[in-house]
Design a protein that fits this description.
Layout (H helix, E strand, L loop, with lengths): L24 H5 L12 H7 L4 E5 L2 H12 L7 E4 L5 H16 L3 E4 L6 H5 L1 H9 L3 E4 L5 H8 L5 E5 L4 H11 L14 H16 L8 E6 L10 E4 L3 H6 L5 E8 L11 H15 L1 E5 L6 H11 L2 E3 L5 H7 L2 E7 L4 H8 L6 E5 L14 H16 L2 E3 L4
Parallel strand pairs: 1-2, 1-4, 2-3, 4-5, 5-6, 6-7, 8-9, 8-11, 9-10, 11-12, 12-13
Helix pairs in contact: 3-4, 7-9, 11-12, 13-14
């Protein structure tokens, strides 16, 4: 059974449907132009937000972690700039997270930088705002848009908030002085990569501390290694635990889906066989889809395993905390094997991590994929004491 995804109904603004909730008429007419998202608390946030404190986010998880960071800073109110992706599922979750940010008093604007000409025209305004920012929070240092805006800014303080397990790879690459490349991709080549290389190098300099000139922090729920001079601030989700739950706990088990097939890391047939095997072995009844999972693949999951497919309307940390959630939550190596144990620490829910077998990897998988997935599994077991389960049929 597949539950409809409210976030995806009608598509997103890129399909000519309604604009994100709270985005003003000006932004609906010309995405990327000036405008402030509305909604509860938005007016107060617009008056009180610190123009020198700016957050750049591209995903609902990044925005969640911006809210978590802000809670630890007392009365700070941020100017949050949302650079939405094209995927309908992520856009829907971002709309809802934007409302939560507005209710917390932050000023939220929605900038369609990926919309072609109008997106490019929004860059000068964004760059001007960032040049005046003394504090900059970013959610994805691998993003070319974030790197471009970083290169155009010169903040006195940079805070990298979690973008899930990608933060582990980013911190490790920064510590080793390596080029920033997502763990599931091979380094870009060709004329475009050559032209962008100076921008990427300049962006990396903004992520390195300079005594007396720039402080850099990483706000993370992940185990990370960072260069000397960068402070790591642990994220144990106080905002999430305060605003949601504790959840009702159901018997049985839930399985958290992954986009490893969509990113070309594992073969779809092997993944589906693993899901079916886990379902039979642990009595799983529900499958929480990743926002990037394709509808065709999810139909196969439902047909072959008999699972109810749920498309969360918020990041899974909030969905699980809101409940109901099963007494046993299983996940392949992903962000939630580090976040859910903290979000659900005051509940009887057990979280387990399912191994990805090396034979499932595609020929397109990067050389780093095997090592990285194993490290996510290993650290989840070591840091949180999670049981490691075999997903082999």
């Amino acid at each position: 059974m597949t539950r409809p995804d409210p976030a995806a109904e009608g598509g997103g603004p890129e399909h000519g449907a309604a604009a994100p909730a709270g985005v003003p008429a000006a932004d609906r007419r010309a995405p990327g132009e000036s405008g402030t998202a509305g909604g509860p608390g938005a007016a107060a946030g617009a008056r009180a937000a610190d123009a020198g404190a700016v957050a750049l986010v591209e995903s609902p998880v990044q925005l969640l972690n911006v809210l978590e960071w802000a809670l630890g800073q007392g009365d700070i109110l941020l100017h949050v700039v949302v650079l939405p992706p094209r995927e309908a599922g992520a856009r829907g979750q971002l709309r809802r997270m934007a409302r939560l940010a507005q209710e917390a008093g932050h000023r939220v604007v929605w900038r369609e930088v990926r919309s072609g000409g109008s997106g490019i025209r929004s860059l000068p305004g964004l760059a001007a705002r960032l040049r005046g920012a003394r504090l900059l929070l970013i959610g994805d240092p691998f993003s070319r848009w974030i790197q471009l805006l970083l290169a155009l800014s010169d903040p006195r303080e940079v805070v990298v908030v979690d973008d899930g397990t990608a933060t582990m790879e980013f911190a490790g690459q920064l510590a080793r002085g390596e080029r920033l490349v997502r763990w599931h991709r091979r380094p870009s080549r060709g004329p475009g990569a050559t032209v962008f290389a100076p921008v990427a190098r300049r962006a990396v300099t903004r992520l390195l501390p300079q005594p007396g000139r720039r402080r850099v922090e990483v706000f993370s729920a992940m185990p990370v290694e960072v260069p000397d001079g960068i402070q790591v601030i642990p994220n144990d989700f106080p905002w999430t635990r305060d605003h949601f739950g504790p959840p009702a706990v159901l018997p049985g088990a839930d399985l958290v889906g992954t986009s490893l097939v969509e990113t070309g890391v594992v073969r779809e047939d092997d993944y589906l066989a693993a899901v079916t095997a886990l379902t039979k072995r642990y009595g799983i009844t529900r499958y929480f889809a990743h926002r990037r999972e394709r509808a065709a693949k999810l139909r196969r999951v439902a047909l072959e395993s008999g699972l109810e497919i749920i498309r969360p309307d918020l990041p899974l940390e909030l969905v699980a905390r809101r409940g109901p959630v099963a007494a046993h939550v299983l996940s392949f190596p992903s962000t939630v094997v580090h976040t859910l144990p903290q979000v659900l620490a005051d509940t009887p829910v057990k979280v387990s991590v399912c191994e990805v077998d090396d034979d499932w990897l595609t020929e397109r998988a990067s050389p780093r994929a095997r090592v990285f997935l194993a490290s996510v599994t290993r650290t989840a077991s070591g840091v949180h004491g999670l049981a490691t389960l075999s997903a082999l049929p």
